[in-house]
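seq as requested:
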Amino acid sequence: MTNRERLATGKMIAADLWPAVALGAAGFLLNMLELQLGWGLHFMFGNALVYAFVRVMRPHSILLAGSISSLRSVFLWNHPWAWAIWTLEVGCVGYFSRTKSPVRTDVLFWLLIGTPLLILSYGVIMEMDRLSLLLVIGKQATNGVLNVVLGEIIYLTLLSLKPLGKLTDWPKMPIQSFVMMILLAVILIPMTVYLRIDAPAREQAARSSVDQVLKERLQIADATISMWTQSRSLGLKIFAEEQLARGTRRSAAALPEELSQEFSGISIIGQDGTHFLNDADNSGTVRKTMQDLPAEYVKDRSRSHLVYFRDTATYPNNLLVVPIRISGNHAVVIARIRQGALQRSIPPTDDDASGGTFLVKAAAGVLPLSKSTPKSLDQVNVLDEALRNAADKSAVLISDTSYGNALMSDLRDARMARASKIAALPDWQILTIASLSPEVLKAREGQVQLFAALCSFVILVTIFGSVLSKRMERSLRQLAHSVADLAELGTERDKLDSLVISELDDISGRIAFAGLNSP
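struct tokens:
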């Protein structure tokens, strides 16, 4: 190859490269404006701009533009599979659009190539669950075909408006492409609008359902803990007064059965530190416990206090501190709560591994009231106070995933949390958490049904449109041949009887009449 040929080749490549890069960059920016159709579902329309130029740019330029435009999917979902499949889709449509309808080509692509690739990448490699995989297939296929339809509409608009008068040499749209564009636009565009309107309602319904469960749990837990605290405080006061009336001092006293089931021992200590009754099993730690108790527990004698020590090796686990009066002086009863006593007071729920009910206090920590895993307990421990305060007003969403920027962010691993103060222990909060998974799966099942119906209609309409467009194309070509014969020979055969469209039938009759009356 001579230097002149190399230079000419380089100029041709540059002439194709820069428009493709500019078109791809414009499509990438347009893809930033994705249309959200629910958890993890995003329609992006940047590739529609690329499809608008499949008839006027070379296939390799269209492929480059589509690959750049589709890069947005990598940043949105954090994996390359959607980008690879969309790039291949653009390449196929760009290659076959010279002789075939781009819309029909794209429908065939998703039937024969796109769907198997989605099953391989999302289903086999990424091990996505069956429900999500079906939803991805329906969504990706619908989004792809809709982009081609919008591209055809843009191209037809440019042909009609002829901006700057420079599009006269662009290829005209064949009747087959026009029919396919119109038929699928009538189906896909209204359905997309409906999905966009329907998605927030589904999401709100799911959250409202879980929120109602959380409210009921809070009411039950608040009533139960408050009743437990008040009844046990009264029982401890009566027992302490009985022991003091009997003159029991500085020695262990056997707890009655109704108290021994939930408390393993008690101590009675005056405000000045006098020990009226010691817990024999923990006599060495009671004094240290009193020294470390916040002043509010000693000074506030209007109610009982729950003390929670996470370091159970040093302190006697959980304590119930009950204020009493001894000979007119203030004192407290410190009752050591047995392991699981508080938990047994709460009615069991159908909590899964990601939910549960907890007692929470910033200075003390988190005390589980229901079955929970170490992971869920750790997640509650790291909740900041601002989020817990927000949960006291309305339900908040908590999750490990950064939504809108993650792999299939469908909120199946997300949880909702609500909190409220306890009437009998206002320095503590009840925090209850429930998984969104059941409601999300229910909403996604409905979306799968919608996409399944939509994809079925697309296939049926594509078949119908192909047959109809072929019939119309054949009829128009027959009319064109009739006109040519009339113009060249001055004669015309009989009127065409195979036409089914009234306007075309009328034109055929006029041509036949003109042929009969020609000199």
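The chain has a mean pLDDT of 77.
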